[in-house]
Amino acid sequence: MKYNKKKCMAARCLRGMLALTVLSAMLGLAACRTETGDMDNTEASGNNHTAGSVSQEDSRPPDSAADQTAADVPKRPLTQEELRGFEEYLNRADNYGFLLSDYRSPEYINLDEVFYSGAGLEQPQLTEDERDMYLETVGQPELYTDMVRLETEQIDAFLAEKTGLTLDRMKTGLQWVYLPRYDRYYAEHGDTNMRSFFCARGETDSGKYRIWCLSDGYSQFNLESIVTLKKVSSGYQFLSNEIIWDYLGICKADAKAPTPEALHYVISAYKKEVEQGGAGIYPVGEVPGNYDSPVFDSGTRYYSMEEMQQISWRPELIPVFRNEIYARHGYIFKNEFWNEFFSTFTWYSGECPADTFDTTLFNEYEKANLKLAVEMENQTE
Known about the structure:
three-stranded antiparallel β-sheet
């Protein structure tokens, strides 16, 4: 028997909070800094089950791409209509879990993430005998939280549809309690791992789709990944998911920094929050486009601590605030990420090497705001 509840209560809490804000779109930049401002069992069953029917929505995303054939389709970018269709498809209860682990081939998908909240599969009512056997197996006097219960046949059918594989062919397995008498797997928890995804861009080539996704948490982007799907007769199957950035480190611990492109989306969400008030939710389909002016006006006024606290809700923006003060004076960063990021702005000259940069160029606003940003960073660490 493999009995492995979610080990980290902190991660549970985070997931619980994430579930309350299942909105649209992603998350934070780990600070790489320089002194000048760079961010820088019962045993598991051996039974083989044939895939049966799954009580599930059709696998097709509701867009025109679903009706295309895979044969010899030339490589091309996805349209906004197609992206919105895939966005709806990936956000379904049976699909979002496939974007919560990093894998290069489907047999390495983290099944605990896929089935954590049940993946939209039907679950019959728990009988008294079944409950008693479960409690005896885990050594508990009662059930403390909700429970997810899935039969092996259900799991096999689901995985065959979504990946072309069955449970016995998956390298990761399902780390749940298994009761042979019922041929079911059990997981007891009271939270959810559900989150929403925004599809920013993508491409298709001969029946395969690579889609760049941003995910939200606390109504802000904090996860960036590229998911690859394959067109099959029944819909789509998951081939891989490359996690580029995971601010919380839940899905991939060493993915600490977003791409410059993702950071621009974070900035756009923040600006919309400032303009409209309330939580900044990135609008579906909108693309960042203002590169002619700095993100912050920190060179012309003093920022208050309250304003910095609002910025710090997206922790990756504090280094943007700080480094932008240097960038406005043409500072060439030692961390190439920042040179690439600020090079997207028309106003950035990149003409002053870090070793010869003179901080006396800063005006009084910039000096005060730089000090405030450093103080805020120290508080959020």
